[in-house]
UniProtKB/TrEMBL annotation:
Gene Ontology molecular function, alphabetical: DNA binding; RNA polymerase binding
Family from the record: Belongs to the GreA/GreB family.
Transcription elongation factor GreA/GreB N-terminal domain sequence ranges: 7-76
GO biological process, one term: DNA-templated transcription elongation
Organism this protein belongs to: Aedoeadaptatus ivorii
Function: Necessary for efficient RNA polymerase transcription elongation past template-encoded arresting sites. The arresting sites in DNA have the property of trapping a certain fraction of elongating RNA polymerases that pass through, resulting in locked ternary complexes. Cleavage of the nascent transcript by cleavage factors such as GreA or GreB allows the resumption of elongation from the new 3'terminus. GreA releases sequences of 2 to 3 nucleotides.
Upper lineage: Bacteria, Bacillati, Bacillota, Tissierellia, Tissierellales
InterPro entries membership: GreA/GreB_C_sf, TF_GreA/GreB_CS, Tscrpt_elong_fac_GreA, Tscrpt_elong_fac_GreA/B, Tscrpt_elong_fac_GreA/B_C, Tscrpt_elong_fac_GreA/B_fam, Tscrpt_elong_fac_GreA/B_N, Tscrpt_elong_fac_GreA/B_N_sf
This protein's name: Transcription elongation factor GreA
Length: 158
């Protein structure tokens, strides 16, 4: 696997580190206990509890590996490095849809901490990528699943 930089805010990195700690100290123990109990049921060839516990163990280990990869390759975007002149990872941007006049506010974050339901969009998403590097007054023409949208940058803050 080729290492790829993961852009992330300090808050996002802390969440990743907290989840790694939880998975290693709590979830691993819970899953190990489930495996131990399932082993007590006897014949492993027809032991669905054992199979489920082993699958869960694999999922936990996979999640730990993914989070450790992200933490290892994290490029933390510090507020001191940001300015309010251009959109970048860590910026909060207010945009207006030119066609509809609707205004939206987005926090531009790295893909590791994107959460569209909370207004946190990835710098790699179509809208996030389209807004990167823009200044107040710029209009970004962005290809989205519904077609093309034109978003005017109204405000950038940190």
């Amino acid at each position: 696997m080729v290492d790829k930089d993961v852009f992330i805010t300090e808050e996002g990195l802390q969440k990743i580190e907290d989840e790694i700690e939880y998975l290693k100290t709590v979830r691993r123990k819970e899953v190990a206990e489930r495996i131990k109990v399932a082993l007590g049921y006897g014949d492993l060839s027809e032991n669905s509890e054992y199979d489920e516990a082993k699958n869960e163990q694999a999922q936990v280990e996979e999640r730990i590996a993914k989070l450790e990869y992200m933490a290892r390759n994290a490029k933390v975007v510090k507020e001191d490095d940001l300015n309010e002149d251009i959109v970048n990872v860590g910026s909060t941007v207010v945009v207006k849809d030119i066609e509809t006049g609707d205004e939206d506010t987005y926090d531009i974050v790295g893909s590791a901490e994107a959460d569209p339901l909370e207004g946190k969009i990835s710098n790699e998403s179509p809208i996030g990528a389209g807004l990167m590097g823009k200044s107040v007054g710029d209009v970004a023409e962005i290809e989205v699943p519904q077609g093309k949208v034109q978003l005017e940058v109204l405000k950038i803050s940190i």
